[in-house]
Amino acid sequence: FFFFFFGFVVFLFLLFAIVGRCGHCGWLGAWFFGFRVVLCVFFVLFTLTHWNNLCKCLSPPGYFIRNGTSSTQWVIHLQGGGWCYNEQDCLGRSRSALGSSTHWGPTTSCYGECNGILSDNSTINPDFYTWNAIFVGYCDGGSFSGSVEEPVEVKDDTSGTTMTTLHFRGRANLQAVFDHLFANGLASATDVILTGGSAGGLATYLQADFVGSLLPAKTKYRALGDAGWFLDHPSMQGAPVYRTEMTTMHALMNSSFGVNDGCRQAYPGADAWKCVFAQYTWPFIKTNSFIAEGLYDSWQMRNILKLPCGNYYHSMAGCSAQENATLKAYGDTMRANITHALALSPTAGAFASACIVHCQTIFNENQDRWNAWHIDGLLVRQVFGDWYFGRSQARAAVQACDFPCNPDCQLFY
User: Is it the case that residue 159 has pLDDT exceeding 80?
Assistant: First the structure.
């Protein structure tokens, strides 16, 4: 009986591996893949209960887990990775790990290392190293806001004769992740921190109250958005490039039904796009939240401000006086935004460094800032830990000086 059972399991595993390939298996293969579970300690790819839970290309959503010794305490990180703004952009994304879980491996290194607040090292992460750590895979391209009920047929080549089916089900994917987590220990949680980096940081703001509505009332629940405060700001040429991109994404993914409810009600109709921005969503967030942001966010320097220097692979040595002034003005706007947000929410916290940086609570851009970067002598992890545990009346560190006043910052020179 044992050998029969073992042989049957191996047969099923091989069958699922063969037919479970997004884009090549059709409905039968998709059903098999939908019920596949990868048997690995660190990676759970959970079963689908209905067709609402899908990445872009008929593959199931999922998450990576590291079980901690504190079984009732959880840090849940929403993966970042930008957005797709139109059908062809999303089609290309569907063929990558940011659009299909078929490209995920059995384990993850997060953004290079699963460090920072996800670390199990007591020196790097003394407050949370024993907690269960979850890394939620990102495969909808809309900060988990997609809410399109029906599949979308997209032209797959320049001739338009081949069509590919895409799904925009980010909110349903998030619901499915938490359904599975509840069935596997989260229901008894005493502490939950929802966090995320970049597009996952934005998702933290957009989805904080939705996730909070799923948790037991007795659970201590907080949100930590890292590098998710993407400003509604024109490029240095004056063009509303990023606003246009996010407005298009919002419409494509029907994001009105996958964002903060209070924001959606406050901005109906033509202003609905505002609810995919943290600065407009913040006044309606009920969850006690912490903002981790660089005043001169490196992704925003390149992709929103369109600054040709002082960002990825571009030295500041070539910056003109006008470009330096534009950089400073952007930092001033970010600082004012965060200061205003803190004034609106007296229990909220923040760590806003005067640095060109993208993500400070988890390893990113080949650096671990969580246990290395300071404001007024306090590490990122200290400011957040003090805020979370109420160890200090100082709830925020927002750097008042301009770049490059913080000696921890990367200088791009």
Answer: no
